[in-house]
Recover the amino acids of this structure.
């Protein structure tokens, strides 16, 4: 993930202008999910926004979009703010899962249970001071994200894996992808991009039209051309990005943006878009010219009890 610092007297005003969510609701120690839109309301990136102090924030963006977002922020920085890319010197560990708290608790005296969801604090881990730890993550499984200098991150990584009988495993984006799909979370480059606006992507809950932001006036008037959906297959088959969704008469009514065999549900699930006014009770996916019936599923696929 890309990590970008924004600091200065007018940081709040600047961030209100470039992000869709209401930054004024953030207090120090809290994190906000938001996105950055272009002039026509398309999504440049989704992100986490950390309020570090009254005049200092950290944006955690998708790594592949880091340079693009920094250029965008620099272009709209009319307030003399300090914008710094700290990605090259900082690391990040996403410690996720139901055992994350008990595991991380073994290398700190700080009571981690006091860090509520979408909050953070600076704590001591091992013999390292003031490590930023947040109760965030993009898996739906709960856990923590740890931000620190790359050398310190390596030290924390080793300490976690040295804990005996922890069942801890190093996993990559493939596993994260199945987890976020099971929760119905959007992924940049799949469900969200510069041609898709947050309303179409089901992200209206992070858009505050009571304020002005780049693209807000257009977005208010913009015609919604598609609607995000979740679905599961009735037969065997893996839905892949780009596969067509069709009606009974084989007319294309939408397309797949993400799909997988859910490790938890043991069935094939997918996320996609249906063109506006073309939502049918019965529709199908085309997989190698084979028409397979799919059923609509309300997000998330995996329901939290």
């Amino acid at each position: 993930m890309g990590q970008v610092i924004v600091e200065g007297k007018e940081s709040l005003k600047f961030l209100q202008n470039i992000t869709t969510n209401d930054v004024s609701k953030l207090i120090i120690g809290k994190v906000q999910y938001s996105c950055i839109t272009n002039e026509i309301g398309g999504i440049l990136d989704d992100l986490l926004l950390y309020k570090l102090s009254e005049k200092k924030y950290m944006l955690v963006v998708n790594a592949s979009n880091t340079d693009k977002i920094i250029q965008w922020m620099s272009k709209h920085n009319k307030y003399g703010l300090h914008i710094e890319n700290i990605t090259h010197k900082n690391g990040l560990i996403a410690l996720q899962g139901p055992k994350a708290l008990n595991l991380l608790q073994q290398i700190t005296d700080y009571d981690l249970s006091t860090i509520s969801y979408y909050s953070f604090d600076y704590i001591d881990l091992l013999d390292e001071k003031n490590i930023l730890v947040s109760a965030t993550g993009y898996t739906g499984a709960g856990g923590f994200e740890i931000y620190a200098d790359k050398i310190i991150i390596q030290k924390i990584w080793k300490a976690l894996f040295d804990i005996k009988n922890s069942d801890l495993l190093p996993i990559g984006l493939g596993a994260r992808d199945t987890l976020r799909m099971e929760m119905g979370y959007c992924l940049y480059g799949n469900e969200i991009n510069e041609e898709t606006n947050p309303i179409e992507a089901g992200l209206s809950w992070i858009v505050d039209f009571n304020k002005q932001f780049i693209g807000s006036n257009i977005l208010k008037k913009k015609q919604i051309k598609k609607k995000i959906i979740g679905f599961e297959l009735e037969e065997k088959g893996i839905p892949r990005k780009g596969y067509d969704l069709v009606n009974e008469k084989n007319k294309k009514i939408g397309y797949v943006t993400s799909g997988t065999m859910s490790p938890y549900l043991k069935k094939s699930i997918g996320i996609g878009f249906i063109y506006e006014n073309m939502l049918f009770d019965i529709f199908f996916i085309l997989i190698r010219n084979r028409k397979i019936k799919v059923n609509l599923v309300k997000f998330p696929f995996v329901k939290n009890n």
In short: The chain has three domains: 2-85, 90-162, 225-305. The chain is about 15% helix and 35% strand. The longest strand covers residues 43-53.
